[in-house]
Amino acid sequence: MTSWRYASSKSPGNVTARTIPLFDHYEYDNLLYTNRICPTLQIRKVARSKFDRYTKAHVPRFDHFCGWLNQAIGEQNYRWFLLFLMVHFLIVYGSWAMAAVLHGDAVDKKLLDPTFLNADNDTDLKIDYIAVLRYFCKEYPQIMCVLLLMTVVSVILGIFLCFHLYITAQNMTTNEFFKWRQVKQWHKKETQKIQLALKYGKVKSVFNGNGAKSGLRHLSNSDVDVACTGPIEEKPVSGSTDNEDIFDPGPIPKYIYNKGVIENFVEVFKPLSFRQEAIQRYRTTLEEEEEEEGNPAKWKAT
Fold first, then answer.
1. Residue 15: exposed, middle, or buried by beta-carbon count in 10 A (0-12, 13-18, 19+)?
2. What is the pTM (predicted TM-score) of this model?
């Protein structure tokens, strides 16, 4: 409960017209992110940010909205979300301990030792684990229900934790993971289409160049809500039709935010907006604004 309360109380960060310098760390890849204005708040969208309609905030390095925490997960609280998952994954230890206690009870009562005579062929039958589980379900129904629940939750949390550790190692967010999957689907579809067209001589004209970036421009304008399991309403990947000119997608684009496993984890557990460079950039901008308005910053000497 402590980890839940702590994680749910931490802000993911909030991009406003005033705080843009604090969160403006990433360059635009001109694929998933382009330099444009947020249609909701009418401010510049910094790369990797997204407006979250549940919290009504523009979240930096937006990952997803977590229903468990009732909180958006972003740059400044993603580390606490990971800690929340890790702590709750310890429930697997509780499942193992409970199973060990039941196994010890079975050994003490020698439940696995009895043998029975098969009347059909006069052979001995040794009791199996299924029969022992049935016995425990009858004798300890509450304990068995709790064990089943803990086991199921352990598996789900284990898969969820592994997924987030994987995307953290790639310096991806949940939002970017599913968008990047669309990029790969689009690229595969367009590559197959041009290969078939060239094979059967149906090519009218081929457009080369920045194929993927121009063909997937709609992804940068997509503001689909993202929950724990991905986009709530994921739109299908569109491509060129048979009546259109053939589109050469070129090589698959490179994901530019991956800095290496170690640096990726450091970036999560020490967010860029908490580092001195970002804070100084933010303070400098505020000082300049205060000077323009004729009100010197009161905290300048601190």
1. buried
2. 0.76
